[in-house]
Specification:
Distance between the termini: 27 Å
Shape: elongated
Largest sheet: none
Strand content: under 5%
CATH superfamily: Ferritin, core subunit, four-helix bundle
Number of strands: 0
Length: about 180
């Protein structure tokens, strides 16, 4: 069984992941309303990914016979000044999640909870990718803020979908929903 302090922090992280999913849906809706379908699709996909991260954490706790808390989340930000603002918010969010995941590793290590530490390692790797992706997107959005169709072209070229699922990812509760 995982250390109780790790279980508590992982349950808190589940809330953060669900909140991130909700924020990405809000971003997607904003871009959808602005007739920027590729930006919308990018953030809808990010929302699903964050939701799945939460469900991976839920499955880990279930497998470890630990208590799982499914939290409510704060309302996402929905009022954005321009095309850049949602991406700025997203990069800040990904950096914050990186710090939170690193703190989870610290708790597991401090408690000598090696199984939980091993579980969280995948999320550390994932956060490097998430921050890099959002940083690149922000650079493109800033450069193209006056012509957001250039961002749409970038996403069509660089994020056209079809990425294979990571076979090293932990299983998510509910399967691959």
């Amino acid at each position: 069984m995982p250390a109780s302090s790790f279980v508590e922090r992982l349950n808190a992280q589940i809330a953060y992941e669900f909140a991130a999913s909700q924020q990405y849906i809000a971003n997607a809706v904003h871009y959808e309303a602005e007739a920027l379908p590729r930006l919308a699709a990018f953030f809808y996909a990010q929302a699903v990914e964050e939701r799945n991260h939460a469900m991976m954490m839920v499955q880990y706790l279930l497998d470890a016979d630990a208590d799982v808390t499914i939290p409510g989340v704060a309302l996402p930000e929905t009022d954005f000044a321009d095309v850049v603002a949602p991406v700025v918010l997203s990069l800040e969010q990904e950096k914050r999640v990186s710090d939170q995941v690193a703190a989870l590793v610290g708790v597991a290590r401090e408690e000598g909870d090696y199984l939980s530490e091993q579980f969280v390692q995948w999320f550390l790797k994932e956060q490097v990718e998430e921050v890099a992706t959002m940083s690149s997107l922000l650079a493109v959005v800033k450069r193209s803020s006056e012509a957001p169709n250039f961002v749409e072209d970038y996403l069509a070229r660089e994020h056209s979908g079809g990425e294979a699922a990571d076979p090293t990812a932990p299983p998510a509760a509910g399967g691959a929903l």
